[in-house]
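Please fill in the sequence for the structure shown.

STRUCTURE ENCODING:
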């Protein structure tokens, strides 16, 4: 399986993160998700899922920051277009990002906490980890699920996973 995200000067485009124009934000949160191209999905896959995590947040905040969780994309998906998280252009079930946490302001608006929340590195450029999973089943998860629930649900169902590091500027 292969995945790709367009970069600008080796970085995630500004419109998908901290430097997004106001039209691409909701209450100060970058909410326009980046386009993702997917190829060579295993023939026996029943669905696709993704996680978008910031491991560089650990030294800053004490934990890995969750920016996007989504599962149950159709297995024949070849493009998750720009802003698909908010627009619903490709059917999926989305989980909770770290913005819901009391450590991050306890946001409650599902348009912020159950969708893509773009990179917002507070200290320096961070490298964000996008992982796409080909699964042998659809996951029994509901909108707003948490990363720990996702990890348990995929156990034993991952046919293939591919990782792409996406740098974003501070």
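FILLED IN BY: designer on duty
SEQUENCE:
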């Amino acid at each position: 399986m292969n995945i790709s995200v367009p970069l600008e000067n080796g970085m995630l485009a500004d419109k998908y993160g901290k430097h997004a124009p106001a039209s691409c934000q909701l209450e100060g949160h970058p909410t326009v998700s980046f386009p993702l191209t997917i190829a060579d999905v295993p023939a026996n896959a029943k669905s696709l899922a993704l996680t978008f995590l910031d491991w560089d947040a650990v030294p800053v905040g004490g934990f890995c920051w969750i920016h996007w969780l989504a599962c149950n994309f159709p297995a024949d998906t070849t493009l998750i277009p720009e802003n698909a998280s908010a627009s619903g252009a490709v059917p999926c079930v989305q989980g909770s990002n770290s913005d819901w946490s009391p450590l991050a302001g306890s946001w409650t608006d599902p348009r912020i906490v159950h969708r893509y929340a773009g990179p917002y590195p507070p200290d320096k450029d961070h490298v964000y980890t996008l992982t796409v999973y080909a699964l042998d089943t659809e996951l029994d998860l509901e909108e707003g699920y948490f990363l720990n629930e996702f990890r348990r649900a995929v156990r034993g169902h991952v046919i293939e996973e591919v990782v792409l590091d996406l740098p974003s500027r501070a």
